[in-house]
User: What shape does this take?
Amino acid sequence: GDFSADGQAFQQGYQLWSDFTNSHGGLLGRPVQLDIVSDASSPDQVQTNYQTLITVHKDELIFGPFSTLLTKPSSVIANRYGYALVEGAGGGPSVFTQGLNNVFDVSLPVANNLNSFSQYILSLPASQRPTSVAYATEDDPFTQPQIDTVRKLFEAGGIKTASYQVYPAETTDYNPIADKIIASNAQVVVVGTLLPDVSAFILRFKQQHFNPQALIATAGPDQGTDFLKAIGGAPSAEAIMVPNGWYPGSNNPGNADMVKAYIAKYGGTADGISSDVAEAFSVGQVVTQAVTKNNSLDQSKLIAELHSGDTFQTVQGPVKFDSTGQNTAAQAYLFQWQNGSFVPVYPPSATGAVKPEFPKPNWP
Assistant: This one.
């Protein structure tokens, strides 16, 4: 379905965790066996899937799917049967306002994703600071909260909205949306996207020779090689930004080993690894630590441990859940493609951070 690229990257992350766990004696001394099914990116199918995994397959642990859209209904099914749903890509606010106590997101809370971008832009000297922004977002519980939050921050900082669009998630022709952004002549473009739509926007911007000073997407540019292929190669990615909670060069526990294992199993380079892989791997790390501490696969004990206030260590950094299941210890980073590499640029204190490239050069 629509999330197939991300879903496959998540499967890789879960597989790497399984491989690592089994090579280190398994979970509670038992080998891990993955039971992966396709949800076709459908909220209806994902509910059927989780009910089947729990009641028919009788799996002892369940991990989350990709996207807020699919995590929300699957968390309800998991709650019905008393299962903990630990996930890494369902950080939209609507997941955590359902009154459930069984859903836990190991990644950065979605609504805060673009805060680092607004902080960077607003920190620029007045003579360099952009004055207008165009926004476009899918009608999606992952993307739109980010766009609406950063829009408020920019408007409060005196940067005007040149254009604001919300389009259906089922959209397949993105050119009319891109053309409205182009017509606005905004200096900055902020788009709430996944890989298919941000790629289409970039191709249209290139075709029409529209060169904003900065371009950031909520997701897509973090997809590594898949992103570069979709937009015509690394030169076209130059200076494009994306927020995220992970990057290959971070010094978080187990990250270097995971990156090495990924390259050995799937090939490519560190810069080509999707952040989805790290999000999924982190899910496994948190569950391993909680289950090991409990010495039990009991779901009620697992939920209690995840709510205990303990801090878990992952390739994305520390994880500590609040009462709603959101990770309060997550760090928001800003990333940019520079000379074919995916590098951290903000905050400056991030390991390996380099100076942001601004303004963005013209398309090649």
